[in-house]
Each structure stands twice: as C-alpha cells, then as structure tokens.
Specification:
Mean pLDDT of chain B: 95
Number of strands of chain B: 0
Helix content of chain A: 25-40%
CATH superfamily of the largest domain in chain A: Alpha-helical ferredoxin
Strand content of chain B: under 5%
Mean pLDDT of chain A: 95
GO biological process, one term (chain A): respiratory electron transport chain
Cofactor (chain A): [3Fe-4S] cluster; [2Fe-2S] cluster
CATH topology of chain B: 3 helical TM bundles of succinate and fumarate reductases
CATH class of chain B: Mainly Alpha
Order of helices and strands of chain B: HHHHHHH
Number of helices of chain A: 8
Family (chain A): Belongs to the succinate dehydrogenase/fumarate reductase iron-sulfur protein family.
Low-confidence stretches of chain A: none
CATH architecture of chain B: Up-down Bundle
Oligomer: heterodimer
Protein name (chain A): Succinate dehydrogenase / fumarate reductase iron-sulfur subunit
Radius of gyration of chain B: 20 Å
Distance between the termini of chain B: 64 Å
Number of domains of chain B: 1
Structural class of chain B: mainly alpha
Strand content of chain A: 5-15%
Low-confidence stretches of chain B: none
Radius of gyration of chain A: 21 Å
Largest sheet of chain B: none
Shape of chain A: elongated
Helix content of chain B: 55-70%
Largest sheet of chain A: 5 strands, mixed
GO molecular function (chain A): 2 iron, 2 sulfur cluster binding; electron transfer activity
Largest interface: A-B, 52 and 44 residues
Number of strands of chain A: 7
Chain lengths: ~260, ~230
C-alpha cells in the first residue's frame, strides 16, 4: 500500500504491560511516502506486523489534526519529533531522510505509567484539573456575553493559556518531568478572567498540591517545555502560577 | 487556625527557597567582589587590608556572615532535595534525549556547576577564611594591619591554585547565567517590561563578576599587581 521511496530503521519501545520490563525493538519499513504523517507510517508498520502475525504496536492517537493531544511519542529525543509547534500526527515523513534511524519512546515520567508499548496513562492530568481547574456557576440561562467587560489583551492572554491540549509534551521533555507548564496554563486560563476570580487562590493551592501528589518533578526554568509545547504555551504562565500560589499561601487567610 | 501549611515543602515553595537564597548569594558576591577589587589599587594591599579588617571587625558584618553560611547551606540542601525529587519523578530514563534542541546546556547542568562551585568553596575557604578567622594571619602590612593581602599573594603564587580559581569562575559565570534570571522567574517576576531588562542585567552581572574575580589570581600570579 505504500507508494513512496523512503526506507527507514525504527527503534520502538515495546512493553507488554505496566508491570513488564520493556525494551527497544528494531523494525524496518520500506517504500514510505514523504507525504505520510508519522502516524500513517506507524499504520503501515502495524499493518505489516498484523499480516506477519505479530502483535501491532500500541500507540495513542485520536483526532489526527493536532487538537486532541493524544499522540504521545518521544521521537529521537524530542516530544512529537523534530519540528516545532506541532503534534506527532502533524509530523510528516518529509522531516526525515531516506535511511534514517528513528528512535520512538513513550513519555517517561513516574506520573505517566506506561500502559503498553508507546501508550501512557495521563489521568494524572485529569486529576489536576479535577482538583480545581474549573469555575463554579449556578445553572440557568447563560449571561449576556457583554455583561462582563474584559479587555482584549487579557482575553487574548487567557485564550493563549487555554490553547493547552494537555498532551504532556512539557512533562516528557522536562529533565525533571515537571508538570508546571501544564498546571500553570490551566490555572492561568481562569485566573485572567473575571469568572475565575472567586476561586482563584483556592484553585492555585489545590492544583499545585495535586500536581505534587501525582509525583511530577520541580521546575528548574530550563524553558524546554515552552520550546517543545505544540501550542506555544509561555513560561509567563508558570510565573503567574507562582504569584497566585504565593498570594494563596502568604496573603490569603483561607487554607486549603 | 490558619497556617502556612505546605507553603515551603510544596514544589513551588522549595523553588522559592532556592530563588531567595540564590539572590541573597548574588548580593553577597557584589560585596565580596567590591572589597577584593581593592587589590587593584596596587598599593601593596594596604587599602584591601583596611577593607578586610573592617569586614572582620564590624559586628553587623560578622552577624551577616552567619546568615550567609546559613543561606549557602540552605541553597545546597534544597538543591540536593530537589535533585532527588526530580530524579524520582522519572524512574525510567530515555534511551535518547536531545536537550540542546530546546534548552541551554548550563540551565540543565546547575547541579553539576553547583557541585564544582562547592568543591571550589571548600578550597577557597581553607585558603583564606580559615586563615583569617582561625589559624591567624602571620604578617602585618605597612600600616600595621593584619596582612591578608600577603596571604592572597602567597596563595596565588601556586599556578595550580590559579588555574583552579579561573576554571571555577567559569563555572560561576554559567551557574549565574541561568540562576540570575531564573530566580526572578521563580519569584513570579515575569513581566514584558522587566524580564528583558532582568535577562540583560543577568548576563552582564554573571560575566562581569566572574571576570573580575578571575582577574585577581591572574593579576597576582603574573605580577601585574605587586
């Protein structure tokens, strides 16, 4: 089914289940089209494995258009591969050369246990959101859209934080497996809008506490997360989270 | 009753302690460098000895010295604790990583650079601090003051020590190059108007202070100052 001319060697992490000890396994793929996406190349390989009667490689994927954040692959030492501002599904084989060897590993973090092969469990992120990444509102008719005036610059900044798709690339690339870019984006998207104010400091405390409880590492400001984030989430969000956390701990009288 | 809870034991709290102690040590380096730079008066160390005598005899400075050591120890202790936490956060390592694609090598090597500085500090303190506080400075200068400059002069006649000091100041420059701006980010001071300024000052400070310190043993060894 392939129609291209690229021949590649893949070293892919295979791990039977969470308990098993995994290892890198070599695979050859041939006649790969440079116009295929990285995941389509995986589909070709899996098709091949199934035909041979081998177990296909398990990997996470869903939307295949860069908005769901499922396609977690650590490719040649970088999350989502060599290009900036994209997810694995948006990475094309033309970013590689014929004859290349490509190493593909799962996200590595204590808080992201491997389920099988390249698929990891990222529910730690869901638990961080559940601990405070929301606003409490009464049900009923939605308010008029212009009832709360919000400056454009502030709305834009909140929206930029809200662009986080929770893919986990920040954790994967951080040398400390820290989730501060993710958590700070989820805090910042609400902290900059009026609707987020009533629970602002409670939120900062709860979400940071949950992030720590999940076993993520600590930020050392290397900036790797910002550089690798497919949505360009800024380090400014981490500084804002720190400010909210200090306000919560040292100014607010409320204890969470 | 409300309390500070996990303010300092949380991930951000531990970083806050690193940042505050780091900035405190950055302030100390300015004072230390200024006093030491008095050797460039090239007056046989008389002005420097006067400065050193003031630092050794003023009770506020002596009390500050205790705070300095506590700050330094806290910085080292927190760093060790954070490093252990961070290693535990990734129990299975990657087979391939490509850090240079997304960050500066020195920002990823603060632990290594800090350990080199700690080794340097042990040598440095035994060269000067132990002598001036405990074993005693043997000679006096032209004004009859304790001649710390003579101790400095004698120490820097050893080329091995000079090389160690210069290499350590390179470590210091890179440690500060990341640490200076990083401390402000940790304090939450990320601002479109101030952050570029902080980064620029950080670069000038890191290179400037390290060059000045490194120039001292070199100038003495080469005989540029007597």
């Amino acid at each position: 089914m392939s129609t291209g001319n690229m021949n590649l060697t893949l070293k892919i992490w295979r791990q039977k289940d969470n308990k098993a000890k995994g290892n890198l396994v070599d695979y050859k793929v041939s006649e790969i089209s440079p116009d295929m996406s990285f995941l389509e190349m995986f589909d070709v390989l899996n098709e091949d494995l199934v035909t041979k009667g081998d177990e296909p490689i398990v990997f996470d994927h869903d939307c295949r258009e860069g908005i769901c954040g499922a396609c977690s692959m650590f490719i040649n030492g970088r999350p989502h591969g060599p290009k900036e501002g994209i997810t694995t599904c948006q990475l094309h084989m033309r970013s590689f050369k014929d004859g290349d060897t490509i190493v593909v590993e799962p996200w590595r973090a204590k808080a992201f246990p491997v389920i099988k092969d390249l698929m990891v469990d990222r529910t730690a992120f869901d638990r961080i959101i559940a601990s405070g990444g929301f606003i409490s509102v009464n049900t009923g008719n939605a308010q008029d859209a212009n009832a709360l005036p919000i400056p454009k610059s502030q709305a834009d900044s909140a929206f930029e934080a809200a662009a986080c798709i929770g893919c986990g690339a920040c954790v994967a690339t951080c040398k400390n497996a820290s989730a501060m870019l993710f958590t700070s984006a989820k805090i910042s998207q609400l902290a900059q809008l009026p609707q987020g104010q009533p629970e602002r400091y409670r939120r900062a405390q709860s979400m940071v506490a949950q992030m720590d409880a999940e076993g993520f590492g600590n930020c050392t400001n290397t900036g790797a997360c910002e550089a690798e984030c497919p949505k360009g989430i800024s380090l400014e969000n981490i500084a804002r989270m720190n400010r909210d956390f200090y306000s919560a701990k040292f100014v607010s009288e409320e204890e969470v | 009753m409300a309390s500070f809870g996990n303010a300092f034991s949380s991930s951000i709290g531990k970083k806050l302690i690193m940042g505050i102690t780091g900035l405190f040590l950055i302030l100390f380096l300015i004072v230390h460098c200024f006093i030491n730079a008095l050797i460039f008066m090239n007056d046989g160390g008389v002005t420097f000895n006067t400065g050193a005598h003031f630092m050794a005899s003023n009770w506020i400075i002596r009390a500050g010295e205790i705070v300095l050591f506590l700050g330094l120890l806290l910085h080292i202790f927190q760093a060790a604790r954070l490093t252990l936490n961070n290693q535990a956060a990734r129990p299975v390592k990657y087979a391939v990583t490509n850090g240079q694609a997304n960050s500066k090598w020195y920002s990823r090597s603060m632990g290594l650079l800090g350990t080199l500085l700690l080794i340097f500090l042990i040598v440095h303190l035994s060269n000067f601090w132990v002598v001036s506080r405990f074993t005693g400075i043997p000679t006096e200068d032209a004004l009859g003051q304790e001649d710390l400059y003579a101790v400095m002069h004698q120490t820097f006649m050893n080329p091995g020590i000079v090389v160690l000091y210069v290499l350590s100041m390179i470590s210091l420059a890179y440690h500060l190059l990341h640490g200076f701006a990083s401390a402000f980010q940790t304090l939450g001071w990320n601002h479109k108007k101030y952050t570029p300024l902080i980064k620029t000052i950080g670069i000038w400070y890191s290179i400037g202070i390290s060059l000045l310190f490194a120039a001292m043993p070199v100038a003495i060894y080469t005989g540029l100052i007597k």
